[in-house]
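worker-03 picked up job from queue 'complexes'. Input manifest follows; two sequence lines, order preserved.
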Amino acid sequence: MRYLDEYRDSALVHRYAEAIRATVTRPWTLMEICGGQTHAIVRYGIDQLLPEGVELVHGPGCPVCVTPMGRIDQAIDLARKPGFTICSFGDMLRVPGSSTDLLRTRALGGDVRIVYSPLDAVNLAAKEPDRQFVFFAVGFETTAPANALAVRTAADRGLSNFTVLVAHVLVPPAIEAILGAPDNRIQGFLAAGHVCAVTGMADYERLAHQFRVPMVVTGFEPADILFGVLACVRQLEAGHAEAENAYARAVRSDGNRRALDLVEGVFEVADQAWRGLGVIPKSGYRLRHSYREFDATRRFGLETDSREPASECLAADVLRGMLKPDACPAFGSRCTPENPLGAPMVSNEGACAAYYRYRPMVEIPVQ
Amino acid sequence: MSEFEIQCPVPLARHDIIQIAHGGGGRMSQRLIESVFLSAFANEALANRHDASVIQGNGKLAITTDAFVVTPWRFPGGDIGSLAVHGTVNDLAMAGARPIALSASFILEEGLSVDDLREVVRSMQNAASEAGVPIVTGDTKVVERGKADGLYISTTGIGEVIANTPIGPTSVRPGDAILLSGDVGRHGAAIMTAREGLELNSPIESDAASVHLSALALIDEGIDVHCMRDATRGGLATVLNEISRDSGFGIAVSEDAVPVTEDVRGICELLGLDPLYVACEGRFIAFVPDDQADRAISIMRRFSVSSGTVRIGTVREGRARVTLKTQIGVERVLDLLSGEQLPRIC
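worker-03 finished. Artifact:
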């Protein structure tokens, strides 16, 4: 398959791994931001090709993992109401709220539908005017353009039965929070290629210079990730700290202007609560005033409750790269994908889920 | 077929729909049975219309049962009717048994179009004829609208065991070659695209098929088949895990060796799914001694349902788990999924 097979080519992957080995002279700790990258790293065993001392720690880039529990509870409450339908990406359904999740809510009769695009939810609303359709608009900058388009389309079509439950998060403020923490140990970042395809690289140039840390925009296939690691360790070994594009086939330094215009027309930057991490200033989107009627919390008078019950889940440390998933005392025993304590154990992009699914053999020598 | 065809004096009208009374045992039930089921499945055993059909068997018999609830019931490459035959025929074959009779039980939803039912029944009969196995008994129930998704079918199959040695996970031995009868994931991908209305340039056709001729040819031609399993729900990865667990041995497979068509890969990439966990309905794996692997492959390749047979791995001594050599040459665990695969966000 074009644009995939080339970047999964074993020979190319091993050449990059060799180049990394030839470059590094000392240990480096890098963070890949995106959960999609985390899964590729663990699924293909990319980290096992890295020289000892080059450590990849996993970042907060799992949108459902950082969606506040209170928002999930709101979605569950809405799905239980007669005449209401929650439309969501499939990934969100297993993430636990404070007492249950959307999948169980559906099993008990709540109307929860998986959609592949927010525009599908708009179309459903148009087809069934007697029901209220609420789209669970979560995600990073990557999903924001489509979510904005859905809201704008609903407005253009005059739909009064479509709203969004927004839990949008932004990457650069999260990186800033990680780098600003006194116990930070991240020396270089692999930035999320798909996010940068939308936003461009300006924020990353600022962060690289402000914190003196390399920011390498990186793709998602094995060769892409190793190419990103190589670019990052080359900078570190040379004492550089630049924003660098190692995913040029998808990312332009100025991003996607049309997508950004769409987002900026519908959303505005706001403080945002991150599950496990708390409120990070200016780290999310909310609907602009002119689109406020599409805000489900406003239309249905939903209370905001950002408190999270005490739990032994250490997702906050995992999401900040302070703790490897399998170092959590609950990992694999009291916390499994069937009975998760936290979101990273259930999401397709969660680091704990990746470790649980792909890593049970790592400590055992391969014969 | 015409020999046993029953000409119903008052045939069901075209465009008729299923009503509760069609399951009530009275005239409407009789009319439905005669004009839809008996005429299509026509065979001597069924024509007796007794409470049970009597069939002739020799030696050891195998029995299996399966329920089919697929939505949508019509999909590229098949429908719920043909699937209900293939699934049960294949389960018998995996136990080394030649299918000799099937039963079919229908749960129909009030409001189902009789034309649709006829289409399903015809497709079932076609699949059964091709597989050379009669449908000798059946049952029909009608439930209220909203209590079923159009129709559900349950089939039971009886087969004569032709293998002299037990075929199953406990017969698996370290060193066994693991053969896969073709590309994986096409049935699941076909259902997903039909269900979600994803628009593709050309629809992905389900791989649903009866594979018993290929599977039983291995036994007929003297291959010491240790185990066979069709890779249905949960896909290839799931059945490999089942066999590893039940045999107590490790299984090592190579990701590069597992065929996946470009369109299935594409849809899986798009939705964030792993084709190794996507269902097949016409693919099986066979565990055979290493020194018989090449001959087994050439036997399987003679049949169109398994013309793409390849060796994907080997049984190992040691811990019962499945390991996968990834495309980039690193080995990792290929585990069971915790739940159904859910499409990702981005």
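worker-03 released lock.
Confidence is low (pLDDT under 50) at residues 362-367 of chain A.
The CA atoms of residues 290 and 356 of chain A lie 44 Å apart.
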